[in-house]
Specification:
single chain, about 140 residues, four-stranded mixed beta sheet, elongated
């Protein structure tokens, strides 16, 4: 019995791990840019105010950016070298699934090309709606 339990554990772990979806992160920046010349930063308020997300999400994003910038040695300043701006874009996604299930049976005596039996079927459509979003974080040289 213990062996059966141990055999089921990897299957449960596999299902659990594959059911988790990860966030896709892409980075696009000028490979020749030298960020070592920048020491200070500030948030570009105009860009942040235009972001179409809740105030709570804005605070979370800005807090995460502050944490990352300070861990890389940048200091928040009134006269910054870099301006940090965010831009959001969202898209509604609707998936429609056509679910047609049916089963039936037949019985009779001997060989007969005609058969009679009960048949059951179910058909339905399910709709799944979700919102996919993108967050753009721009670092702008304030000296240009």
């Amino acid at each position: 019995m213990k062996n059966i339990k141990l055999l089921g554990l990897p299957l449960i772990l596999l299902v659990f791990i594959t059911s988790c979806s990860s966030v896709s992160v892409l980075s696009d920046y000028d490979q020749k840019a030298d960020f070592n010349g920048y020491k200070t930063y500030a948030f570009y308020k105009t860009g942040i105010d235009k972001a179409q997300i809740s105030d709570l999400d804005k605070k979370r994003i800005l807090r995460a950016i502050e944490t990352e910038m300070s861990s890389r040695g940048f200091v928040k300043s009134e006269k910054p070298d870099l301006l940090v701006s965010i831009f959001t874009k969202e898209q509604e996604r609707v998936d429609v699934y056509n679910n047609n299930y049916g089963w039936g049976g037949a019985w009779g005596w001997g060989y007969n090309p005609w058969a009679w039996g009960p048949g059951f079927g179910w058909g339905g459509t399910s709709v799944s709606a979700s919102t996919q979003g993108s967050l753009y974080i721009d670092l702008i040289d304030n000296n240009t």
